[in-house]
Specification:
Layout: E1 2-3, E2 17-21, E3 25-28, E4 33-35, E5 37-38, E6 54-62, E7 67-74, H1 77-80, E8 88-92, H2 105-118, E9 121-126, H3 137-151, H4 155-160, H5 178-182, E10 192-194
Parallel strand pairs: 8-9, 8-10
Antiparallel strand pairs: 1-5, 2-3, 3-4, 6-7, 7-9
Length: 208
């Protein structure tokens, strides 16, 4: 994650600050919001060759809210086509619920690495950010992504997922952040991975 060049002491001329959470966000009294931590946007691509052998695709999972996910499909899927052997990872990016994006370079790279290393189909959630969308919006969006995945309506999910990913006897859960706690009741899903809510974009917590 990268901060822009705005100084922590500098504010836009003629605008009063109401909330200053530098280096994350700054909210002005006129209601406008300035975000500092952001990574460059990365386009999804079906080409596995240029992305560590991982194809990516964006899907809108809730038309009412516009919430979407980015799917990460490793090259291993080519060897398992028709046999449904890939596990599923639902991934919720870090950023304290107010910064960053599943489509930004930081978390695109992380999810790519996760898919390639684990040989799993990763669903990375592009949830709505606070303060424009305060909690529980992010939780609702993560739920929407999970419900979409459970419906198995997507062709990648239908073709490549392990048939037992919904089996409670084969579950693995990970996470201890607020988002992780949100998924506590979802004991009948196979794998969850959540980042810590800090600026370490490579850290994960595991609580099996």
């Amino acid at each position: 994650m990268h901060a822009n060049k705005t100084s922590p002491a500098k504010q836009k001329e003629g605008r009063d600050i109401s909330v200053d959470m530098y280096p994350f966000i700054r909210k002005y009294k006129d209601g406008s919001i300035e975000r500092f931590l952001r990574s460059p946007f990365v386009l999804a691509s079906p080409d596995q060759g240029g992305n560590r052998g991982v194809a990516t695709r964006d899907v809108v999972v809730d038309k009412a809210t516009g919430v979407s996910v980015r799917l990460f499909l490793p090259s291993r899927a080519a060897d398992t086509a028709g046999r449904n052997r890939l596990p599923l990872v639902i991934y919720v990016h870090g950023g304290s619920f107010c910064t960053e994006s599943a489509f930004g370079r930081t978390y695109h790279r992380y999810a790519t690495s996760l898919a390639a290393s684990a040989g799993a189909l990763v669903v990375s959630v592009e949830y709505r950010l606070a303060p424009e969308f305060p909690r529980p919006a992010a939780y609702d969006d993560a739920w929407a992504a999970l419900q979409w995945a459970a419906s198995s309506s997507d062709p990648w999910l239908n073709e490549f997922l392990d048939e037992g990913w919904k089996d409670s006897s084969r579950k693995t859960r990970a996470g201890k952040t607020a988002v992780g706690k949100c998924f506590g009741p979802l004991g009948k899903r196979r794998i969850f991975v959540f980042t810590e809510s800090d600026d370490d974009d490579t850290k994960t917590s595991h609580n099996g």
